[in-house]
Amino acid sequence: MTSTTSETLTHKPAWKALAAHYQTLRGQHLRDLFAADPGRAGRMSLEAAGLLLDYSKNRITDETLRLLLQLAAECDLRGRIDAMFSGEKINLTEKRAVLHTALRAPRAASIVVDGENVVPQVHAVLDKMAAFCDKVRGGQWLGHTGKPIRNIVNVGIGGSDLGPVMAYEALKSYSQRDLTFRFVSNVDSVDFAEAVQGLDAAETLFVISSKTFTTQETMTNAQTARDWALAGLGGDAAAVARHFVAVSTNAAKVSAFGIDTANMFEFWDWVGGRYSMDSAIGLSTMLALGPDNFRALLAGFHEMDEHFRTAPFAENLPVLLGLLTVWYTNFFDAETVAVLPYEQYLKRFPAYLQQLTMESNGKRVTRDGTPVSYQTSPIYWGEPGTNGQHSFYQLIHQGTKLIPCDFLAFAESLQPIGRHHDMLMANVFAQAEALAFGKTAEQVQAEGTPDWLVPHRVFEGNRPSNTILAPKLTPALLGKLVALYEHSVYTQGVIWDINPFDQWGVELGKVLANRILPELESAEEPALGHDASTNRLIRWYRQHKG
Ligand code: F6P
Q1: Active-site residue among 359, 383, 486, 519?
Q2: What is residue 172's DSSP assignment?
Q3: Per DSSP, what are the bridge partners of residue 205?
């Protein structure tokens, strides 16, 4: 039985061995590791579930991998994976199962939560979504004035926005192009105002997406959407039924808002918000792509789930990615991971990953509430290549920080034109090569560089990266990629002995904002009981607000 205290992690034999091993490895350069070992690239790359992961440009040896895998065993990663897939209530602080994997299980599967097989419910909702999407996409779902729907506006925030918008952008080339998709998340009214610019209410459908149906931003935007739609449709409240659908776990709140639960697409409390893009939260995705493509997306997720669940850890893509992140975070003190897609369609993928990774593993106590004595989630960030090369890559190449990078790229472009794709791919390979191998002072001097300029032109190298390649960005591939990171995050969370599935850290700000709002709106000068700084900021705003 594994204990759940942080003491235990840093006292585990594998952790101690990794700390000692780090001391011998930290001075070694990737140049030398490659030169000494011609089989390295072949051995440290893995093709599985339709992806190629080349992890040879990491600051590791076979011994590092052996110890990381031993650490996984000592942390009972196998048992914890089985606990998640079997529906154990591993989200301890919310007493919930964690079953996003059930959302993509095949129809015939059986996954039991509280005595009930949830797979038939999952497929019933998928079928209801498909029937609705076919009607909207086929022009049979008519608005209040009899016009077909041409515009779909998803209203949601966090997991009820980031997945839908990322998937829409990623798979736009598979979407029904005569439908317009917009996404509103921010309580800043600019977001709503811009999202409905130029739209005709008679042709617009709002998908109100909120797991809880209580989130302040979403409820405010939903109310504004209702007012906007009714203003454009002559004020008849009956119009809501044709122009609003809801995606939620909370039927009572959906009804209270005025949306008929017949127009509600359900999901369940065992789906975390940031793990919900493949639940009914994906309704806008299915509207854009059609039911067949959405099912292909789910099949991709499922393929990666099965790989994670069954592959030996040494050949397990999410396990390896997760363990490498632990290696850099805890032994090299790396603070961030850059995710760099060389695929313009994945431009929102880093933003999506930020919630998935940091809302999951940004925790400071173990599962039993003990403060950790080691770092947990790194900061994830990134932008598509090649744009980032002309912006922040300077720091990755020559700055003082170690930033492990994940490069993502595809063999085939979805919009091939001339030489563009070969140029894109030449850049991704070049960046990973330059980061790992750098350019020595001797090489710089040999080019005739004056001595005073040499230090500025040296590339130290030894900067680690993974390269993840796939044939082509398809719906199935996107599912695999998202599941790859979901399970890497879980692997990290298991090693750190934290709960990746709650998010108490968002609560305090919400409570304080609710307390401050009436102070901003009150006609009388309010008595303020905050700290001196917050009091002054509130008074300044009250004096200057329009
Ligand atoms: O930011 C906190 C959070 O609860 C996220 O976990 C969630 O994805 C988001 O708010 C939106 O929540 P809901 O879907 O309930 O509106």
Answers
A1: 359
A2: G
A3: 152
- How far, in Å, from the CA of 211 to the mean position of ligand 1? 7
Model-wide pTM > 0.85: yes
Q: With beta carbons less than 8 A apart as the criterion, state whether 501 and 98 touch.
A: yes
Instruction: Indicate the top mutation candidate among 276, 281, 503, 508 to test ligand 1's pocket, ranked by most ligand atoms within 8 A of CB.
Output: 503
248 by DSSP, 3-state: which? strand
Give pLDDT, residue 546.
81
302 is catalytic: no
Concerning whether 89 is annotated as a catalytic residue, the answer is no
Tokens of 100: 């996003």
Residue 7: predicted pLDDT: 52
From the candidates 412, 460, 510, 521, give the one annotated as an active-site residue.
Answer: 510
Which atom of ligand 1 sits closest to the CA of residue 157? 11
Number of H helices and E strands in the chain, helices first, is 24, 13
In 484-516, which positions are buried (b, 16+ CB within 10 angstroms) versus exposed (e)?
Answer: bbbbbbbbbbbbbbbbbbbbeeeeeeeeeeeeb
Give the DSSP letter string of 369-399.
SPBPSS--PPEEE---TTGGGGTTHHHHHHS
Q: pLDDT per residue over 236-280, tens digit each?
A: 999 999 999 999 999 999 999 999 999 999 999 999 999 999 999
CA 208/CA 206 separation, integer angstroms: 6
Binned at pLDDT 50, 70 and 90, residue 376 comes out as very high
Question: Which residue's CA is minimally distant from atom 16 of ligand 1?
Answer: 210
113-156 pLDDT, tens digit per residue, is 999 999 999 999 999 999 999 999 999 999 999 999 999 999 99
Q: Is 203 a catalytic residue?
A: no
Burial category of 328 from C-beta neighbours within 10 Å (exposed 0-12, middle 13-18, buried 19 and up) = buried
